[in-house]
Amino acid sequence: MKTKPMVHKTMKTKSNNSRRNFMYYIKRDWQLYLLLVFPIVIVLVFKYFPMAGLIIAFKDYKILKGFVGSEWVGFKNFAEIFSNKDFYRALRNTLTLNGLDLLLGFPMPIILAIMINEIRTLWYKKINQTLLYLPHFLSWVIIAGVAYQLFQPRTGLVNILLRNVGLEEIPFLTENTHWVFSYVLIGVWQSMGWGTIIYLASITSINPELYDSATIDGAGRWGKIRYITLPGIRSTITIILIINLGRIMGSSFERAHSLGNPIVKEVSSVIATYVYSAGIQAQKYSFTTAVGLFQSAVGLVLVLISDWISKKIGDEGLL
User: Fold this and answer.
1) Looking at the chain, which terminus has fewer C-beta neighbours within 10 angstroms, N or C?
2) For residue 80, what pLDDT is reported?
3) Which residue ranges does the chain devote to CATH 1.10.3720.10?
C-alpha cells in the first residue's frame, strides 16, 4: 500500500524532468529550432496541405463548382482507370522500365563509389567526382537533345561511325527493344555519379583501423572491399534499396517525354505521360488524381513490405 504514492511520485518526477529538459534545449538552442521552422512550413504547405485535394479522386470535379460543389461519384474514377487498356500499357511500361532501372542502375553507384574510394591520387579523384556529378545537373531536355544527335538512325554520330567501319546502323531510339535499353542506360549514366555521394559518405564513416588491421593480416584491395567496405555500407544499401522500391511505381515525366517519340509509343508511354495526355490535356482532373492516388498507395505498400522483409532478415529498416 505504501508503494503506490512512491510510484506515482516517481512518474510525476520523470514527467517534470522530461518537460524541463525539453524547455531547456529549446532555450539553449532556440536559433537552431527557429531555422527548423522554415523547412517544416515548406513541407506542410507543399506536401501535406495539397493532400486535401485528393478528395477529387472520388468526385466528378468541375473547376467552376470547386472541391465542395462537385458531384460525389465514389470509386467511379478508379473503375474507369482499371477498364482502360492504355492505363494497363502505361502501368506495364512503368514497371518494366523502373525494374530495369533498379536492376542495372542500383548497383552502379555502389561500384562507382568503391572505385572512387580506391583512388589514392587526390586531384585525380576530385576531377573524376566532378565529371561524374555533372550529368545530374543537366536537364532531361538537354540530355535528350544530345542523345538524338548521337543516336539518330541516319544522321546520328554513332551510326555514321558504324557505317564508316562497315557495320549496320542500330535503331537506338526508333525500335522498341533498342529504345528501352537506350532509355535505361542513359538514365544510369545520368544518375550514377550523383548516387555515389551517399555511399562515399558511408564509406568514410568506416573505422580506418579495420583497413590497417586487414593490411597487417595480408589482405589485398579486393579482400578489404569484400570483408570491410561492403559490410560497412550494408545498412545504407538496404535503406536506399527500400526507398527505390517505393519509387518503382513512379516515373519521370521529363525523361520519358523527352526521350520518347511516336514510333516507340508502345513502350515509352508511362504513367506520368499517360496522366499528362489522358488527364491534364483532356481536363479530366478527377481521373488524373485517381491515378496519382493509386500510384502513391502501391508505392507505400511496397515500402512497408520491403521494410518488413529487411527487418526479418536482420538488417536495419527504414521505419
Assistant:
1) N
2) 86
3) 75-312
Residue 153: pLDDT over 60: yes
Residues 284 and 52 sit within 8 Å (Cβ to Cβ): no
CATH code: domain 75-312 is: 1.10.3720.10
Q: Which residue has the cell 589482405?
A: 219
SS3 state at 118: coil
Distance (Å, whole) CA 297 – CA 128: 39
Beta bridge partners of 295: none
C-alpha to C-alpha distances, 217 to 126, 207, 213, 214, 268, nearest whole angstrom? 30, 16, 6, 5, 53
The stretch 197-223 carries a mean pLDDT of: 89
For the question of whether the overall pTM of this predicted structure is more than 0.90, the answer is no
- Is 272 within 8 Å of 256 (Cβ atoms)? yes
Q: What is the model's pLDDT at position 181?
A: 93
Residues 295, 292: Cα–Cα separation, whole Å: 5
What is the spatial distance between Cα 225 and Cα 230, in angstroms, rounded to a whole number? 6
DSSP3 helix / strand / coil % (the chain, rounded to 5) = 80, 0, 20
